[in-house]
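hey so i finally got around to running the thing on that chain from the lab meeting. sorry it took forever, my laptop kept dying and i had to restart like 3 times. anyway pasting the input first so we r on the same page abt which one it is
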Amino acid sequence: MSNGLKKPTGLRVVLVRPEHDLNVGSVCRVMKNFGAKELYLVEPAAGKGFDATLFAKHSQDLLKTAKRVKTLAEAVKGCNAAIGTTGILERYGGSLKNTLAPKKLARFCSGHGNIALVFGSESSGLSREEIQYCDAIVTIPTSPEHHVLNLSHAVAVVLYELYSSSQELETKTHPANRTERERIERRFKAIAESLSSVEHPKKVARAFNNVVERSKPSTEELNALMAVLGPLSRKTTTRSVLTGSGSARKKSR
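ok and heres what got predicted. didnt touch it at all, straight out
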């Protein structure tokens, strides 16, 4: 994997004192979207009613296998790290440990194995003791006008960030080095200079170089481009030699 990171072996979602069946059902659906397979409910006031089943569309299996426990310690047992969540950091004062934005979560979780993602109730969130029990805290940046997300929405954001990061980590491509980038830049410049329709080939070539440098292409992507630009370069260069368009441009400049 790139960057030396390892994605978590397993993801467990822990809902502490969930209050509404529809949120529990929606969380199941989100979990299915992003590959999380374990759901724990700590002292739930809701969980497996009609609305939970209705909103857990295509993910009723996760709802049926959800485990009910009495304490957070039971819910995170067997996990290598517990990640708490909150929308109101100020509530906990100096009791917070590592505070992370969702985009930083993948790096923190790298190599930890099984991870528990802990979410508090809709009305009161996690208690100070529960926050202290967690190894790190994730908070999702939101508008100060209304900074608390719906429970299932918060789960979706956190799982999305972990899932998308894991997809990036598993990418098999390799960033192109300077030599590879310069090779395609030279090839494009040769094409631009050989085309009589291009009035300012140096300017066009410079723009292409800027695009290449900003996009940070992989070796595989540059090879794919070279498969097109290579033959095109040979054709346009041959044509310019036969027609004299390239030499005519140089004289005019």
